[in-house]
Specification:
331 residues, alpha+beta, Alpha-Beta Plaits, 13 helices, elongated
Amino acid sequence: MITLGTVLASDGSDMSWFEKLLTFLVSGALVFSLIKGYLTVNKIWKRRKNEEVSNSISIVAAMLGFVVGFPFLLNALIITQDYFNAAKSVIALFLATVFTLIGTGYFVDKNRGVGFLKLLGQALKLEGKESGDLISDMIRPKGARKIIDILQKLAAIDDDIAKEEIELIEQFSEKWGIDVPDLTPGKPQEVTNLVELKGLVQSYLDESPDTDVAEGLVDLINLMAEADDEVTEEEAMAVAEFTGMIAHYVSKEKGGEMEMFEVSIVPQGDQQMEAVRELLPELEIVESRGGRVFKVGKYFSEDYAEAVCEKYILLGLYSSSSKVKVDLEKA
């Protein structure tokens, strides 16, 4: 019995020290809450007159601070008499007040003389317009409009738009909330220029989309080419070139090397040399093992490079392509 009493007394003593320690920690947490509140307000207070800063604050979120804070404050003061929690609620209400005032633009110079309720209404209206931006950006990838344009032009590259291709375009345009003109199966109103389409793909990549989204575009391009169960020569060439462009974009930050196909024009004599200079004045002649050549450019697919060569061969110029390795860190 004596031993049991000693143990119980010891437990009570431990609880007493634990309570003291807990009280000390709660007091420290309250102090840290004050410091945190000050630092939070101090950072934005210097910029309270900046309209961009004002518009960046969610007025609804700030006002919800009152909805949450007041019940907790009343509960802590009247029912639980927990003054530490009451103090934390006061700090939260103070922050809600500051952020509400800044979020309405109350301190912005151009709003001087405008009533608080009017500013509040304007802020709520702006919030309503922007409330879906985050969800929209999460669902709708960056450059979605250009992705749809790429799919439309790719569908018309073989001078025939299939019903399955239209359905694929409409599926993604509806998903991303993008309006597209009415498309009908058959001959397109405008035939796609392969060079123009390549420029559109490069324009999309210049917007620096997420690499995951860019890789997804490869799948979409392949899906579009195979939608009608027939991959034409033009589609195959476009798919190969654009896949290479996207692979280059995705791999560029990782460094390393990538195989490409370089097209050169090898003039046969001085007459062709002058003809190339007149036709392509932007090209510079370089010395190569095969003599003096004009470097036209590097391409990602062999078929596309061969098509470029064929264009110059039809003009009577000797042209060839060769496989080269490109250092992506220097590209």
